[in-house]
Amino acid sequence: MMAKNKEPRPPSYAVSVVGLSGTEKDKGNCGVGKSCLCNRFVRSKADEYYPEHTSVLSTIDFGGRVVNNDHFLYWGDVTQSGEDGIECRIHVIEQTEFIDDQTFLPHRSTNLQPYIKRAAASKLQSAEKLMYICTDQLGLEQDFEQKQMPEGKLNIDGFLLCIDVSQGCNRKFDDQLKFVNNLYIQLSKSKKPIIIAATKCDECVDHYLREVQAFASNKKNLVVVETSARFNVNVETCFTALVQMMDKTRGKPKIIPYLDAYKTQRQLVVTATDKFEKLVQTVRDYHATWKTVSNKLKNHPDYEEYINLEGTKKAKNTFSKHIEQLKQEHIRKRKEEYINALPRALNTLLSNLDEIELLSWSEALKVMEKRPDFQSCFVVLEKTPWDETDHIDKVNDRRIPFDLLNTLEAEKVYQNHVQHLISEKRRVEMKEKFKKTLEKIQLISPGQPWEEVICFVVEDEAFKYITDADSKEVYARHQREIVEKAKEEFQEMLFEHSELFYDLDLNATPSTDKMSEIHAVLSGEPRYKALQKLAPDRESLLLKHIGFVYHPTKETCLSGQNCMDIKVEELLANSLLQQDHGRSNLYHDSANIDKINLFILGKDGLAQELANEIRTQSTDDEYALDGKIYELDLRPVDAKSPYLLTQLWTSAFKPHGCFCVFNSIESLTFIGECIAKIRAEASQIRRDKYMANLSFTLILANQRDSVSKNLPILRHQGQQLANKLQCPFVDVPAGTYPRKFNEAQIKQALRGVLEAVKHNFDVVSPVPTIKDLSEADLRIVMCAMCGDPFSVDLILSPFLDSHSCSAAQAGQNNSLMLDKIIGEKRRRIQITILSYHSSIGVRKDELVHGYILVYSAKRKASMGMLRAFLSEVQDTIPVQLVAVTDSQADFFENEAIKELMTEGEHIATEITAKFTALYSLSQYHRQTEVFTLFFSDVLEKKNMIESSYMSDSTRESTHTSEDVFPRSPRGGSLDYNYPDSEDDAEGPPPYSPIGDDVRLLPAPSDRSKYRLDLEGNEYPIHSTPINCHDHERNHKVPPPIKPKPLVPRTNVKKLDPNLLKTIEAGIGKNPRKQPSRVPAVPPEDTEQSDNYAEPIDTIYKHKGFADDIYAVPEDSQNRIIKVRNSIVINAQGEEENGFSDRVSKSHGERRPSKYKYKSKTLFSKAKSYYRRTHSDASDDEAFTTSKAKKKGRHRGSEEDPLLSPVETWKGGIDNPAITSDQELDEKKTKKKPHKVKEDKKPKKKTKTFNPPIRRNWESNYFGMPLQDLVTPEKPIPLFVEKCVQFIEDTGLCTEGLYRVSGNKTDQDNIQKQFDQDHNISLESMGVTVNAVAGALKAFFADLPDPLVPYSLHQELLETSKIMDKTERLHELKEIVKKFHPVNYDVFRYIITHLNRVSQQYKTNYMTADNLSICFWPTLMRPDFENREFLSTTKIHQSVIETFIQQCQFFFYNGEIVEAPNPVACQPPPSNPVQMVEPMVPLQLPPPLQPQLIQSQLPADPLGIM
Fold it and tell me: Strand runs (DSSP E) across 895-1053, as ranges?
């Protein structure tokens, strides 16, 4: 009995599979399918199914352990679960008959019975018999699974009788059926269950199957199962049915007909196939292999199911088909890409229609092969066709395989290409024809819309042929041409009317009347009318021209690269390159240096690289520069070295200069910090007199990797640091260089060191300075018009062709020196060649002995500019007029040239000047002798010219005779110290309005006359904001000639507005005479908030003085003006201390006049333009005296305020209280001996004040109407948002925010960068908060209309007078609601920002009161030229102050805030570094109306500090 604790083993059954067997004669040439049926049942997986099983064996195989000399095979066992879950094990035996492969007779076995008797045996025994798997197993049993028949014996429990119902192989079905019948009879004797398996039903013969079914029906309980081992149909069913017959407890299986079972099985296969194919579709790379993919998918159920049903072989075939499809798809796409790229290749290689129009495709291929660009478009492969080579995998190679061109598709592309060229040629011809048609139509004007022109061309053949887009494109091109031409002609017309813009009486801001006058004069010109449809562009050109007249520089020259200054500098740099040895004269008075000690400072090895480069250019440490050999001692030191200061200065090595090299922002910042440390060390220790003056030179290393990205930023930052440190900056020269440092850079830096050594020698030398041997005897300025149609070489050839021509001093890039014998001596003549716009500054400020005025006889504008310039030249200075044309024949052949040459000669005759002509086709007139007579004339008048210049300079500056000359450097050299704060010490603009390069008398001591403001900009000590003439520049430096003594005037009945300039000049002369007698701070009971006016930019002040930064206005007649720690009572008084507003002249001395009063031509031209603004005297009256004065105006500068670098209109914007009133000045002059008639012009109505364009570049953002800059989604202009965000994030607590001015260059740079990229980050630009604040104010100042509309100004003023505070605030709130919605949103935004600023007043010292002082002129923009505004400035300011204080009430429905303490919060006293000698107050006469002076002030003197 079985143990209770053991699970019962499943029942085991042995099934014997029998059927027709024997020799080929008995069964035919194939079996009935017994082996396949057994194989499919025991091993059902497709990979384990073998369709071929042979019964013909060798004697060895028959005797092997698998067959074991038996005529039956043991197939193994299968464990099967029934529907009821009960398992059973089925052992499968196949009864067959093995044939000897030699005799083809059955092998001899232990059982010699015939097959029928042997097959019916119910007991089988065979010791150690192994399981059969396949035919290949025989003889190789060790390579397959070895499983023995259990216990070497089996008892058969049932029989599976196989009957082949297929066509059979050389076998009769009746014979098989007869054999089966005999076999069945024998089997029946065993009393075992029997089932008939109809095999090979997939190849079934219907009547065979019916006979089998008939055979079974005649037997009792005999079941027929229709099977197919190939497709695994009903194989398991027949074995299951047999087991049920052996075990009646099992459920009886359902016998399904073959067709139904086949459909079910095929559905399983189809489903599995679909899933597998989808799995394979995930592979997209046709390079994938089956091994890689199968390993990746082997655990996927869909993969396993398909492998079980169909097998690995079919799966691999499916995968291979998919890979092939991917490859073909890839080839198809590549071919499509090649075909699509072929037109571009044909356009490159066969673009000439005339060459290929008649060529066949094969001929065209031969032509293409010869083209130089053939290899860049096509590739010739060694193996063809291309789609069977590895070229298909070269996806980065876009070249077209040349063998692809042999296809029909390629030939079709070629034919289309030829047709396209033909049609394109026709289209281009028609477009050009249409363009010529447009050119013939005279009625088309610039700016005319296309719709108005269609009617003129509707019948044109070319217009009908081309498309609408082409016609519009041609018309747009035609419009661009005529508009460009019209603009050029308009600009030329403006130059022809130069006198109209260079009017001396014109304010720095052209008034509305003046602009109307300009338009009235120009409106009669056809070139003016030509831009009638482009009025905004015309106005823009006009304003741009006026802006250029205000600030003329070579960078902003309207002629661009044709600017005369640029061309002259280029020509002189090239022509005088061989004469650089003349530069050695520069060092004649210096220490005669032969050896230069250089300290090279850099970071990360840059210093050593520069030292190596210098040594490479040297020979044995000797360097050739400007014709002289210098021995160089180089000491490169890394900036990170802890021994930096100790290495810099030793007893054995004293550097003449320090090269500071950088190649990144980080290294530049590090260098700046090192220089600051070195200078601080030098100022504290003072080891040597040269140490404090050690020169530094910033050198930018070439950026070979990212030139376009980093170089502009590094150049800008380097120039800024150089400006701040007051040291030279050596830029990377234009062009491409393989090394980091260029020879030109090193030479430029060395010259700078030598110049600095010479300057330092002069400064510290105990010997008084003498006249430099290189100084010129005569200084001549040659002026020429930018854009004139002649080469610069032509007008300079008289000098450059001379053997006595040499280079001028270093830094004067537009000058040359001539050594000529004039009279009895050799003279040195300095010729400075400038454009007319650059010459204006020289005419005003520099000593010039003579002018050579060049004009083109082919250009009216050139003559117009000459007239405008000559009109303002003093008539004591000799002038040479030069007309330039091609040849003398032009005078007789061209009326226009004849007219201009005649006019020039006529003007020369009128003013007694020289006149000559230069001809481009003549060589004689290029000789220096052309100007010999002129030079002689200048030399004769030299003393008179210098005396006149000195007299004029003295009148303007009111210096005593000792102070006219520049101070000796040893008398008081400037000790430049630099502030620590970067916010308060920014570099000046890269160029001045005139430019340092046009200065004729460079003198290092000039800096003694200047201070540096917080931005690093120089300003004259003499200047004061008390009058409107502060634009006059007082930096004239005369040659060392002694002037006549000055006679001071007494009994001056008027405190002249220029008096403060006299006072400050005198202060500068006497630095230590008397202490101050008036306190430098306002009285305690003075309410500062009531006296605030516009803030003045902070400057360096002497140590110990309070930091008074605001000008305090009272009424216009008795103005109290706080000027840089000083209080001036501007009232009538007597002069007591010998200081006068001008210098008296000797009786009978002729005062210089101007050439416009000597030339009837010049004067008549000017009068025709300015008849309404000049006196009504006739032309003849104008020439009766050279002392004629203008009427109706106070006497201002003799020079042109239009060309002054100071914009006087900003005097009103920034400081409304500091203005000069014409009528008040005239009233004050009534007590003077010489009375001036008052101008009895009617009083004009107040007009809208329009400030001039501040920018010198065109912008499509700044200066635009506010409505164009916002959208409903973004109601605040993006620039305003960026600025406010930057200020509030980084500088809300900055002291003096919105009061202290930022760097003007940075302000412009911020707007320029924003113009180019609206997404620019202000943080990345490295600008200061003050610069951003200035740019924000400039944005509002540039708006066409003020943010607070003019229409509401009067209402705001009236409402401000309401006494009740609550009522006043509610009324103001209603007025604000009347703003345009756009203005309202922006006004609310900026007021809210200012409110936030005022909340930080304890740290930034900017209360709402102070902020309103700074902002109200910008937001309301009043007209300070109108007297009515002067009386309401305080009310204007209080309105803005109220808005800032009550921001929450006005815009956010908040409560009314109680007003804070009205006393303005002042910054604490500062102790700035002393920049100039301390100024000592002078005694002034007592005021005439002492009752107007506050009681706290002394009644007698007034101290100016």
Answer: 914-919, 1010-1012, 1018-1020
Range with lowest mean pLDDT among 126-140, 597-611, 1113-1127:
1113-1127
Tell me if 1330 sits within 8 A of 1302, measured CB to CB. yes
The helix or strand, by DSSP H or E, that contains position 698, with its residue range, turns out to be strand 695-700
pTM for the structure as a whole = 0.43
Q: Which one-letter DSSP state was computed for residue 1175?
A: -
- What is the CB neighbour count within 10 angstroms for residue 116? 17
pLDDT at 1082: 39
CB contact at 8 A, 378 and 402: yes
What pLDDT band is residue 1186 in, cutting at 50, 70 and 90? very low
CA torsion sign for 768, 772, 778, 780 is negative
Nearest to 860 by CA among 907, 900, 893: 900
pLDDT at residue 1433 above 90? no
Helix, strand, coil percentages, rounded to 5, for the chain: 45, 10, 45
Return the closest-CA partner of residue 32 out of 177, 135, 131.
177
pLDDT score recorded for residue 761: 57
| One-letter identity of residue 252 | K
Counting every residue, how long is the chain? Answer: 1505
Cα-trace Rg, the chain: 54
Instruction: Kindly report the number of other CB atoms within 10 A of residue 406's CB atom.
Output: 14
pLDDT for 493 beyond 60: yes
| Burial (CB count <10 Å: 0-12, 13-18, 19+), residue 1018 | middle
- Token pair of 757 as six digits: 């050594």
Q: Say if CB 171 and CB 185 are below 8 A apart.
A: no
Rounded to an integer, what is the distance from CA 430 to the centroid of its chain? 41
Report pLDDT for 648: 67
Average pLDDT of span 26-44: 89
Measured between alpha carbons, how far is residue 339 from residues 368, 400, 402, 795, 1032 in Å?
16, 8, 12, 61, 74
Please tell me the distance from the alpha carbon of residue 205 to that of residue 182, in angstroms, as a whole number: 22
Q: Has residue 1193 got a pLDDT over 70? A: no
Look up residue 474 and give its two tokens. Answer: 């041609």
Strand ranges, E, within 836-957? 850-856, 879-885, 914-919
For residue 799, what pLDDT is reported? 83
Task: Give 1230-1285 as a 3 state SS string.
Answer: HHCCCCCCCCCCCCCCCCCCCCCCCCCCCCCCCCCCHHHHCCCCCCCCHHHHHHHH
Q: What is the mean pLDDT of residues 727-742?
A: 79
Torsions phi, psi for 158 (to 5 deg)? -170, 165
With CA atoms as reference, report the closest residue to 212 among 200, 263, 122: 200
Nearest to 1203 by CA among 842, 950, 813: 842
Strand residue runs (E) in 559-681: 595-602, 622-625, 628-638, 657-662
Check if the beta carbon of residue 697 is closer than 8 Å to that of residue 747. no
Instruction: Find tokens 């007025």 and name the residue.
Output: 1375
For residues 1387 and 1389, give the distance between their C-alpha atoms in angstroms, rounded to a whole number. Answer: 5
CA distance 1229 to 1115: 19
Describe the crossing of helices 932-940 and 942-957 by its angle, rounded to 10 degrees.
60
Distance of CA 1030 to the CA centre of its chain: 38
Integer CA distances (angstroms), 522 to 491, 525, 903, 929, in order = 12, 6, 22, 42
Dist CA 957 CA 1008 (whole Å): 15
What span, in angstroms and rounded, lies between the C-alpha atoms of 517 and 514? 5
For residues 1438 and 1444, the answer to whether their CB atoms sit within 8 Å is no
Using alpha carbons, list the distances in angstroms from residue 847 to 786, 850, 1345.
23, 9, 44
The helices-and-strands tally (H runs, E runs) of the chain is: 53, 29
